[in-house]
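I can't quite decide. Please look over this sequence plus structure tokens:

:::
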Amino acid sequence: MGNDVNKVVLAYSGGLDTSVILKWLQEHYDCEVVTFTADLGQGEELEPARAKAEMLGIKEIYIEDLRETFVADYVFPMFRGNALYEGTYLLGTSIARPLISKRQIEIAEETGADAVAHGATGKGNDQVRFELSYYALKPDIKIIAPWREWELSSRTTLIDYAEKNQIPIPKDKRGEPPYSQDANLLHISSEGKALEDPWVEPDESVYTRIVPPWRAPDEVTEITIDFEAGDPVAVDGERLTPAALLTRLNELGGANGIGIDDIVENRFVGMKSRGVYETPGGTILFKARRAMETLTLDAGAMHQKDELMPRYAELIYNGFWFSPEREMLQALIDEAAAKVTGTVRLKLYKGNVIITGRKSPNSLYDEDMVTFEEDSVYDQRDAEGFIRLNALRLRLRKRLRG
């Protein structure tokens, strides 16, 4: 395939697909491969990836714990925007891609590599997310996407290639795996195989982070979350780093059956896909943040944010994290978050997140104003003119129509 590539940085998980890709790159491009494995809280041991890369002759191996960066610089800014794609998806896979891409490009520059490679298929969103990010950060980078180039079009041919090249195959990969999964500290997604028919109910074995609500304990868990300038900083009064805080909320949510979403979504590449997402901590955080905003954001600011949210969520889903429009929206979102400080109290119970209280030093809630008791700040007679003015066009319309 030509010798225009001397060195490539591969996003490497150590699994079957990326191990085959590693060997294939060496063979077909006759180039040096640098592996990059990121710990984003997927919950797997990463050292086996190092051993596998060494076995395949790799000299430059990067294995990095990026959990704090992931939560502080990607997950939390996204949550400030209350981002939900198509009304349901908390964007757990989408938000991990820009960080992996950014670090890959940095490693390419550190090692003098002239190309980057990823293991995303030609049917999904991830290829778009990775490659838009690569190009945004390094416009002249060469990108290798093996799934769009090679002849290894099925699981069987992949396994044959692995066996031929003495690449170890995880036992469960020899049979057809029930699901294709992607995990990080925010969520785990399951797609494909048994889930491809959107009418078929998932087997309970799909749930790996969350006890199904119908099996969750019969007792309530009550917690508080403290926010400062839009971001959560403490659970039950204990200050935690961003990654530790999300880990704690994942434990609490998972134990109480919170955060399962079975979704059919519209992929950016044009097809629909069905996935089961488990986002325990994120679901709690989403509800708690919203409760904090209701107390601290002005109506106009809140509604403006709500209008922009679907566009902001779509940009992240489609892979435009490093775009000027996402950065513009982020500046507006961060401005709105500045006063979102205070404490939210919640009950967790069998898949439910129930808000029971909120307080803030920046509260715009005025008890004197809303009370049904007599007050001196709001003249109820003013409402008559307000209503008549707002009704004017409705009255004219009825008169004209007869």
Remarks:
- DSSP finds 13 helices and 14 strands in the chain.
